[in-house]
Amino acid sequence: MTEAALPGANLSEAQASGIEFFRCEMSNVNFERANLRNTNFRNAVVNGAKFSGADMGVAILRETDLSQADLSGVDLSTTLLPRGFSSNLTKKTTA
N or C: which end of the chain has fewer CB within 10 A? Predict the structure, then answer.
């Protein structure tokens, strides 16, 4: 999947463990409840993507644009995150 363009795709509940999304354009993709273990998103654009409830254990998000991404309910304890990443910046808020 290197350099694929999938903006707005619906990949909710996808079984995508181990997939390489290196340098992919994935803005606003729906990854809710997807299996993304051991997945590489390095240099991917996933701004606005919905990862709510996804399994992202040991996923690689280094050098990834996570602006506006919804990571609510995601365990990021084993995920390789961008330097200086703050999970507070990625959760959507409801009024």
Answer: C
| pTM for this model (two decimals) | 0.86
- Output phi, psi for 88, to 5 deg: -65, -25
Task: Please name which of 39, 49, 45, 43 lies closest in space to residue 16, comparing C-alpha atoms.
Answer: 39
- Per-residue pLDDT of 12-43, as tens digits, reads 999 999 999 999 999 999 999 999 999 999 99
* Of the candidates 15, 43, 45, 42, the residue with the CA atom closest to the CA atom of residue 31: 15
Contact 6, 31 (CB under 8 A): no
CA 94 to chain centre: 20
Give how far the C-alpha of residue 37 lies from the chain's centroid of Cα atoms, to the nearest Å.
Answer: 11
| Cα 16 from Cα 94, distance rounded (Å) | 29
Query: What whole-number distance in Å separates Cα of residue 5 and Cα of residue 24?
Result: 6
Per DSSP, the chain holds a count of helices (H) and strands (E) of 0, 0
